[in-house]
Amino acid sequence: MGIDYQETFAPVAKLNTIRILVSLAVNQDLCLQQLDIKNVFLNGDLEEEVYMEIPPGFEGSMAKNQLGYKQGQADHTLFVKKSHARKMAILIVYVDDIILSGNDMEELQNLKKYLSEEFEVKDLGNLKYFLGMEVARSRKGIIVSQIKYILDLLKETGMLGCKPIDTPMDSQKKLVSVVSQFMHSPTEEHMEAVYRILRYLKMTLGKGLFFRKTENRDTEVYSDADWAGNIIDRRSTSGYCSFVWGNLVTWRSKKQSVEARSSAKAEYRALAQGICEGIWIKRVLSELGQTSSSPILMMCDNQAVISIAKNPVHHDRTKHVEIDRHFITEKVTSETVKLNYVPTKHQTADILTKALPRPNFEDLTCKLRLYDIYSPA
């Protein structure tokens, strides 16, 4: 007893969930508002079950859902209340910051009133600045940038006056793929790679992620792998990026935990990771009232891998990736996932697996909808 009394945590929303909500908001003309709870750490509840006799005037735990908001299972900081006539109110919590969205303005006002009665709440109006992200909305869409965050980072590192550069990595060098792997004992070459990243950030100071209204209602995931690309341990790098209704919402670049003995193994591992991400996104969309029977569209540039996944016949070349192969085949057979071939030059996830020459890099950043805020329309 008492072993966990000193362990505390704060509710932290997934940034991926926030970007999914932004994509829905721009496509469905939902509002995006922000609240700030003052002294939130003084209003915490005891999560452990401690049995006691409730004094008169106190409410039991049955009252916690009295407002009718359902907590999300894919993201426990997401709360949704659905009402008649397709009305919906959405709440996302990040410690003491709250994002409100939805098309039920009356319910959102009621929620603000209720929270104001319980806590000291500051209504910040439309969402403009959240967790270092600057949000600007216009008739064309929503753009999310990090100008202040980048300026603060450059100032802190003494790189405010550095010369900008077009790409974050030299495509001719493969020694340093992820500089954070060497943070405990960096060499001069590693530090040069870090400075190059900072110079690239200065170049992209005015760029932001653009969310626009589209007719697309699919969930698309691009996955790729750079087989044995790390020359130190010859491990592969997986990369995937996900689009909801035509807008980029999640991405990841990660070195694989074991060596892949073939390109098929590396691609399968990346594909399986991308499918898992797509399934999670579909769960979030369902909790946001956007249930769809359409399969997740997986974009892969390896035709051999697609062929093996669609063919239930056993293949000797994939014995060492049986788990990933069976997982992918199961999702394809159940029509949870649809595998599509995309040429390598159009493989958006390629930017997440290795350094690219400037023309390829700039082409793929455009496909990711990373645009310059200040460029002429």
From TrEMBL:
CDD domains: RNase_HI_RT_Ty1 (cd09272)
The Reverse transcriptase Ty1/copia-type domain, residue ranges: 2-61, 66-169
Pfam family, one: RVT_2
Cited InterPro entries: DNA/RNA_pol_sf, RVT_2
Protein name: Retrovirus-related Pol polyprotein from transposon RE1
UniProt organism field: Vitis vinifera
Gene assigned in the entry: RE1_2181
